[in-house]
Input
Amino acid sequence: MNISKITIIGGGNLGTSIAKGILAIDHFNKQQLTVCEKRLARAKQLVEMGFQVVENKISEAIEDAEIIIVSVKPQHFRSVLEELKPLLKPEQLLVSTVTGVTLNEMAAVLKEHPMIRIMPNTAIEIKESLTCLCFQSTTREQELVVTTLFNALGKTIVLHEDQLDAVTVLGACGIAFALRFIRAATQGGIEIGFSAEISQFIASQIVKGAAQLLLENGTHPEAEIDKVTTPQGVTISGLNEMEHQGFSSSVIKGLLTSFNKLSNGDK
Ligand SMILES: NC(=O)c1ccc[n+]([C@@H]2O[C@H](COP(=O)([O-])OP(=O)(O)OC[C@H]3O[C@@H](n4cnc5c(N)ncnc54)[C@H](OP(=O)(O)O)[C@@H]3O)[C@@H](O)[C@H]2O)c1
Output
């Protein structure tokens, strides 16, 4: 990868995950990444984690940065944009992770500056994110640079911005939904005889394996389910009981609840 320097503004949950992922990319070294963090205690933690940190000085943090990733809460985004406005060089690409703030709202401040809205998830720290990208005022070359970066941190899809709320729910909140399944399976595993540690290991590995089956074979989930559900067998009995208790329905309803909340302007 040919990116000389990346700056992340906001070293919170997601900013730190992105920073960890970037440093795990082959041939990318610590001097090529700067994290700018406002909160003193958090900045100290980031230094202890081994990151090059600039405390709350955006002007200093973005010097020579080819890509600037802003990862602050929506309520802080406007002031960060206003601060960036007189500092940004035309060639510096601005990437926002901020939920619910549109490219047009960003353009109201930054005009024609090249901007990218992304929606990654926290698995970015182990380079397994699903990152959705939306571009505005960018050249094909700039789009390629950003796509290459996020492909090194997992998988990417380019979508129209009006699908970003949906991808936020399925692709970012979805991490929490999948983790809750793992937690529930772990609890069940403990009840049938495993230690918490072994149970969680088994539950995590089966989710990883199930996902890999679909991704690598390109099959439908039901085709893979059919392979393990013997007539009158134990798997179908358990699976049907889960459905009687509303398993699929509660997952779908949960997704819709999150989506409706986001569409109503909640972040
Ligand atoms: N977490 C996720 O999985 C996820 C996924 C996709 C998108 N997002 C979006 O990504 C954004 C960041 O989320 P998060 O969970 O990482 O938030 P977070 O933990 O609150 O992190 C944001 C950090 O940025 C700091 N900050 C605020 N203004 C700053 C400034 N001017 N300069 C430098 N640092 C500044 C904050 O400090 P203070 O606390 O002192 O303000 C905080 O430490 C949000 O807009 C969120 O909607 C999150």
About this structure: Residues 167-263 form a domain with the ProC C-terminal domain-like fold fold (CATH 1.10.3730.10). The radius of gyration is 21 Å. The first strand starts at residue 6 and ends at 9. The pocket of NAP is lined by residues 9-15, 36-39, 42, 56, 71-74, 76, 80, 97-99, 119-122, 172, 267 (CB under 6 Å).
